[in-house]
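note to self: dont lose this again. the chain is below, predicted strucutre after it. 115 aa total, dont forget to put it in the shared folder this time
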Amino acid sequence: MTSVVILAVLSVGILLCLSAARAGAGAVAAARADAAADASALAAADMLALGRGATVARAAAADTAAANGARLTSCACAASVVTVTVAVDVPVLGATAHAQARAEVLGSGVEQREE
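---
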């Protein structure tokens, strides 16, 4: 009887650990996506601020997203405002974390705004 109880307790403990690991993987992926989106938006806005144009800004955003372990899924460069969306795959969960960020080129520099 005691071995059945011990087995049940161990099984519950293992399930709790696995659940915590999956939740942790999701939280880490979301944080990575947020960081990649922020950095990508700033990189694109920097290119706009330097007068390099929307095509170069999009390329900078894609390169920055890749350097941060994400992929750029959209980049809208409208005049002095950049809005990017990135995705980070979460293999443990078989899911994808998405994040969006916006940066605006002001007269004296680049300003980041959270959405």
